[in-house]
Write a structure and sequence with these properties.
This protein is α/β, with parallel strands linked by helices. The chain is built from 11 helices and 10 strands. Strands 2-1-3-4-5 form a 5-stranded parallel β-sheet, with helices on both faces. The protein has a 5-stranded parallel β-sheet with strand order 7-6-8-9-10, sandwiched between helices.
Length: 342
Amino acid sequence: MTKTARKIALGVSVVLALVALAADCFATSPSPDSVQKPLAFHATTRETLRVGMSTALSGPTAELGLNVRDGVRAAFVESQTKQTIAGKVLELITLDDGYEPERTTPNMHQLTSDLRVLAVVGNVGTPTATTAIPIAKRLSTPFFGAITGASALRGETASELVINNRASYAQETAAMVNALLSQGIKAEEIGFFTQNDSYGDDGFFGGLAALRSHQPVKQSAVPHGRYRRNTLQVEDGLADGMMQQPLPKAVIMVGTYAPCSKLIRLARENNFNPQFLAVSFVGSEAFQRSLGDLADGVIVTQVVPHYSSDLPLVQQASDEVWPVMLGIGTSRPIDWKSVPRD
């Protein structure tokens, strides 16, 4: 139960913020200028506020998508119970893209053009997000709380319609690099295993920039293996990572749980035993299950507060939303501080 709560923390934080934003925009008797542009909300009816989600409900990142969807649903139920938005009903419309951009495109057209949703929330993945954002921009639909740390959603070139609530992949991999260097591992002893797309590239180049902040490093000198998205074809990537000498003492993985798990198993079978680290998008719970005993010692970074945090948002989730998520059905507070950190 505690793992489930931890996993959907991001989904709940996304939706609590979205509900607050909607409440501000649809307060009783708003002035004509009260909705800030370019957030030109266009929910369908006076009674119903439709929020859209194109996310991974199947495929290698399904656990992320399902948990975010469930977190959104729980927050919506709680909002309806408390009547956060007077006279309005929140409706979540969820479409499955399987973590494939080709499926994201028709989903986004349906959500924004046909259903005219208030906002799109909880997208899972970098390739799907970069496909979805241009479609959202055509009708000025806010793109809120995507489960990705991609650079395309950040910085001066990012659309004002994109609202992030998590750290970037560059920040995650930089934190890993800095921690490894502080433990005495040399820059040339750090390797990477990444997905062969914009997601993997974001993590790799973020880590490379962190290495270069400490000393000059040629990209060609960094051990780097890759695999194709939505496949388990990791053998070539492992071979590429093991070609350079000396062998890496640490390998930072920017991928999904199944190929990363297979890489670790094959590495162990070949007596290659570096410190493995993975970014948060790997899906820590599924990753741990797939590895079994081999998960011991593997590090996975996280980008949401711990469920025992004193942050007001986490406390609100503990008191109001977790009971709905966990099927308790009351607003009885849950004392997360009594739960051990595992």
